[in-house]
Automatic annotation (TrEMBL), chain A:
<dbReference type="Pfam" id="PF10288">
    <property type="entry name" value="CTU2"/>
</dbReference>
<dbReference type="GO" id="GO:0005829">
    <property type="term" value="C:cytosol"/>
</dbReference>
<dbReference type="GO" id="GO:0000049">
    <property type="term" value="F:tRNA binding"/>
</dbReference>
<dbReference type="GO" id="GO:0032447">
    <property type="term" value="P:protein urmylation"/>
</dbReference>
<feature type="compositionally biased region" description="Basic and acidic residues">
    <location>
        <begin position="131"/>
        <end position="147"/>
    </location>
</feature>
<dbReference type="GO" id="GO:0016779">
    <property type="term" value="F:nucleotidyltransferase activity"/>
</dbReference>
<feature type="region of interest" description="Disordered">
    <location>
        <begin position="122"/>
        <end position="151"/>
    </location>
</feature>
<dbReference type="GO" id="GO:0016783">
    <property type="term" value="F:sulfurtransferase activity"/>
</dbReference>
<keyword id="KW-0963">Cytoplasm</keyword>
From TrEMBL, chain B:
<dbReference type="InterPro" id="IPR012675">
    <property type="entry name" value="Beta-grasp_dom_sf"/>
</dbReference>
<keyword id="KW-1017">Isopeptide bond</keyword>
<dbReference type="GO" id="GO:0005829">
    <property type="term" value="C:cytosol"/>
</dbReference>
<dbReference type="GO" id="GO:0034227">
    <property type="term" value="P:tRNA thio-modification"/>
</dbReference>
<protein>
    <recommendedName>
        <fullName>Ubiquitin-related modifier 1</fullName>
    </recommendedName>
</protein>
<feature type="cross-link" description="Glycyl lysine isopeptide (Gly-Lys) (interchain with K-? in acceptor proteins)">
    <location>
        <position position="123"/>
    </location>
</feature>
<dbReference type="InterPro" id="IPR015221">
    <property type="entry name" value="Urm1"/>
</dbReference>
<comment type="function">
    <text>Acts as a sulfur carrier required for 2-thiolation of mcm(5)S(2)U at tRNA wobble positions of cytosolic tRNA(Lys), tRNA(Glu) and tRNA(Gln). Serves as sulfur donor in tRNA 2-thiolation reaction by being thiocarboxylated (-COSH) at its C-terminus by the MOCS3 homolog UBA4. The sulfur is then transferred to tRNA to form 2-thiolation of mcm(5)S(2)U. Prior mcm(5) tRNA modification by the elongator complex is required for 2-thiolation. Also acts as a ubiquitin-like protein (UBL) that is covalently conjugated via an isopeptide bond to lysine residues of target proteins such as AHP1.</text>
</comment>
<dbReference type="Pfam" id="PF09138">
    <property type="entry name" value="Urm1"/>
</dbReference>
Length: 447, 123
């Protein structure tokens, strides 16, 4: 408590401290047990916390599993359970960064659709002893007469991890740590496993990778982008064909003018890698572990960078279309804050691989080897100069003192819509279906 | 884990979410604190304190400064900011959100378990 400093008021008048939680410490859900966590001024006990989070998760993902043509009435989200059969038109791919959100996402997907535990908090997959504790997606519970899967998604679920250590000199490669996390959800008894697809950021500049995912059309591939920023027309020059993918990546990122551009480019390249990997596996759903807090950060930093259509798309389910397939990019944790995610991870004893903050500058040439000392200096000397890093620090501070505000940011921006639909042709680094309405207008601007 | 010396407290401190990297890469620590802590100037628990300075029961705020001064190996600004934990670091006191226990004002008892979790890894 402290004085407000206004001399016109009584000197002894003190400003009372903001109430962190309403009413009492008893759980607002069961009204029986003492609370263990405060979520936006509401108190929940540990027992009620897990169903609360998993319900919020299923309420976002459940209604969009079936194809869009399904009746809206079939998507009854009572308790996150749907009436009728869940049947996705393709396979499932989960984007995994090693961070808190994607770790919790993987755990929620596994426990909601592949393992069902009577103890919602807890049971690690290997503790499930009988089929009744396994989800409908688990192979042991799948209907045999339906063919190969008989489950919600076709084929085997997969997790895709993109390693970015090549642009951080001396940074630790976490690919094997990520693999271990994914493999921990396997069930040897029933031969159930989740495919692990390790990628590297430089794969976006690797022609052989593009061919492997069927995206060899150079007009739409994000490779060999040499940009001459001294020329206001921003012409593109093909890079030296003898460059390795790592060299091409460094050449590209080092040519970008600002730390914000570097951060944005890295995010876009990761997104391209995930989208084309998902498309090559005929995935109908690509899940990303963006939490409510991260969503607010992305939206505010997007506004600061002039994002319009992309910012709106961030807050809702996106649809990516190719000539012969359609895929939904979903953020099922968008109603779950970073705090709830952290508590879920801690109470479920999840192993967090971790991820490095993206660099603000990248050297034109790759580092020659493992240089932990150099990496320590890089991390130490990094300044928070990118809009994304500054926004994240702002939002984290805001969430500490005003937790409801972070939620309000995401919900308010989610109401924003755009007038026009966009431009046909898409972008090399973030291909998205656009309409033709503005194509001539944009061509006029560029000529 | 009970302390045999009534003038000291034994508490278990754990770090998660990458914070352990700042504390010798060790996730779990057993810390012995004075039960009644003198409040030194600038909250620096490594400095000698004057007899004239007041005393108070050791609370979580004191523990945070103690960890900064005695266990933290590097980058103190990643753990402490403005006299408390940096935004993005969650604190659990005996498996309960510290917001329910009075945050830094919670008076420590012998055998308490305090957990610090970083949420700065993002999505």
């Amino acid at each position: 408590m402290s004085s407000c400093g206004n001399p016109a008021t009584e000197q002894d008048a003190l400003m009372t401290r903001r109430q962190i939680f309403d009413k009492s410490k008893i759980c607002v859900k069961c009204k029986e047990r003492e609370g263990h966590i405060v979520i936006r001024h509401a108190v929940y006990c540990k027992t009620c916390f897990f169903p609360l989070v998993s319900t919020r998760f299923r309420k976002v993902l459940g209604p969009i599993i079936n194809p869009a043509r399904s009746s809206a009435k079939a998507a009854n989200v009572r308790g996150g359970r749907l009436r009728g059969r869940l049947e996705a038109p393709g396979s499932l791919l989960i984007g995994f960064s090693g961070g808190l959100g994607s770790t919790v996402l993987l755990d929620l997907v596994a426990k909601s659709y592949f393992y069902r535990s009577s103890n919602a908090s807890a049971a690690p997959p290997e503790a499930a002893e009988d089929n009744s504790s396994k989800g409908t997606e688990h192979p042991s519970n799948r209907s045999r007469e339906d063919g190969e899967s008989g489950g919600i998604w076709k084929g085997k679920p997969a997790v895709c991890y993109v390693e970015v250590a090549s642009i951080l000199p001396g940074a630790r490669d976490r690919t094997e740590d990520a693999r271990a996390v994914v493999q921990s959800y396997g069930d040897p008894a029933s031969k159930f496993e989740i495919d692990f697809i390790p990628l590297r950021l430089e794969d976006a500049f690797d022609e052989s990778w593009w061919k492997s995912v069927g995206g060899s059309n150079i007009d739409r591939a994000a490779k060999d982008l040499g940009i001459d920023i001294s020329n206001e027309n921003l012409p593109l020059y093909a890079s030296n064909s003898g460059s390795t993918p790592v060299e091409s990546l460094h050449s590209y990122l080092s040519s970008l003018p600002t730390p914000t551009a570097v951060h944005s480019a890295i995010s876009s390249l990761i997104r391209v890698l995930l989208i084309y990997t998902a498309a090559s596996r005929k995935a109908s759903h690509l899940l990303l572990g963006t939490t409510l807090t991260s969503l607010s950060v992305n939206m505010i930093s997007g506004i600061a960078q002039g994002a319009g259509f992309a910012m709106v798309a961030e807050g809702m389910e996106e649809v990516w279309k190719n000539k012969d397939q359609s895929m939904r990019i979903v953020r099922p944790l968008r109603d779950i804050g970073i705090k709830e995610s952290a508590f879920w991870a801690w109470w479920s004893n999840l192993s967090i691989v971790g991820r490095e903050r993206y660099p603000t500058t990248v050297s034109p040439v790759p580092s020659t080897g493992n240089e932990p000392a150099k990496f320590a200096n890089v991390v130490k000397n990094q300044r928070l100069t990118s809009i994304d890093a500054l926004t994240q620090d702002f939002i984290m501070g805001l969430e500490k003192d005003y937790p409801s505000t972070v939620s309000t940011i995401a919900r308010t921006i989610a109401k924003v819509t755009t007038k026009e639909k966009g431009v046909e042709g898409g972008c090399v680094t973030c291909p998205t279906e656009r309409s033709t309405m503005e194509s001539q207008h944009i061509n006029t601007l560029l000529s | 884990m009970a302390s045999s010396n009534p003038s000291t407290l034994n508490v278990k401190v754990e770090f998660g979410g990458g914070l352990e990297l700042l504390f010798s890469n060790q996730r779990s620590h057993k810390v012995t604190l004075p039960a009644t802590a003198k409040a030194p100037k600038d909250s620096n628990t490594a400095l000698p304190v004057l007899e004239s300075e007041c005393t108070k029961p050791a609370d979580v705020a004191y523990l945070i400064h103690y960890l900064r001064d005695h266990l933290l190996k590097e980058r103190a600004e990643l753990f402490v900011e403005n006299g408390t934990v940096r935004p993005g670091i969650l604190v659990l006191i005996n498996d309960t959100d510290w917001e329910l226990e009075g945050e830094g004002d919670y008076v420590l008892k012998d055998g308490d378990e305090i957990v610090f979790i970083s949420t700065l890894h993002g999505g």
